[in-house]
Structure formats: structure tokens, C-alpha cells
Amino acid sequence: MAHVRKTIRDNIVTTLTGLTTTGSNIYRTRVYPLAEAKLPGLAIYTRDESIEYSSMGRPRTQVRRLSVAVEIYVKGVSNYDDTLDTICVQVEEALATDITRGGNAKDTNVLNMDAEFSGEGDQPVARATLTVEVFYETKENDVETAV
User: Fold this and answer.
1) Which domains does the chain possess?
2) What is the pTM of this model?
3) Which of 30, 39, 50, 72 is the most buried (most CB within 10 A)?
4) Residues whose CB is less than 8 angstroms from the CB of residue 69 and which lie 6 or more positions away in sequence, other chains included
5) Beta-carbon neighbour count of residue 85 at 10 Å?
6) Distance in angstroms (rounded) separating the CA atoms of residues 44 and 61
7) In angstroms, rounded to a whole number, what is the distance separating the alpha carbons of residues 81 and 115?
8) Is pLDDT larger for residue 38 or for residue 120?
């Protein structure tokens, strides 16, 4: 088994694979830049996670707040704002189809969108990052099982 965090991240990758605009150009890292042939594309990775305890008796229940980044990359000489917005629509609507992330979470929320643009190279690259917050619970002695 794997940490519930990984299971949720995998669910998000699966949910977003095959979108009309990005297709299978989806990657589980932010370490390597996406090649031009892989654009438009998505990079999905965990940003951080906070943990609170909601019970006193052992094993304690942990309420977890996971922050997942969905980075959207597009390249072109025009309409990249429109393309970013189109992909944002597809991502947000796909994520809303199952807020429980396959039964592993209590809720999923898109918190914000941040866009950046770079004019370097032969064509500008635009990037939008959607911050997705996922709430889930585990027991402190079994972080591989959602409760």
C-alpha cells in the first residue's frame, strides 16, 4: 500500500489525463521543464500538507489538508490567455466530478489560480498554477488507509 497522499495525487493525475486540450501530456513532477512537443501540458505535484489531531485517545485521528499544484503550460504567439482559461475550465470541472478522490478524501477545493508569462525563446510560454486543497483523514498508526 501507499500513503493516502500518493493515492490522492494518483487519482488527480488519472482524473486529469485525457482532457480535450492537454490529452496525455500530464507529468508527476515539477523538476524538469516540459519540452515544446509536450505542450500544452500539465505538471501535478504535492506542495505541502498540514496535520491536526481530532481525537485524544490512541490511535489518534489525523485531519489532513493536502495542497496539490496543477501547473498548466501552453506555448504560442497569441491567445495563450484564452488557452489557459480553457484548460482551467477542463481541470476544474474534471476535479469536481469526484470531490472524494475515489473515496479517499472528505472534500476537494480549487483555491486559487496564479498565471505567469515568459517571452523568452521563439514563442512565449504561459503557465497557470491551480492550487487544489484536499481534506482527508487517517489514523496516526495507519497513514495508508483513509478514514
Assistant:
1) 4-146 (3.30.70.1700)
2) 0.93
3) 72
4) 30, 43, 44, 45, 46, 47, 129, 130, 131, 132
5) 15
6) 27
7) 9
8) 38
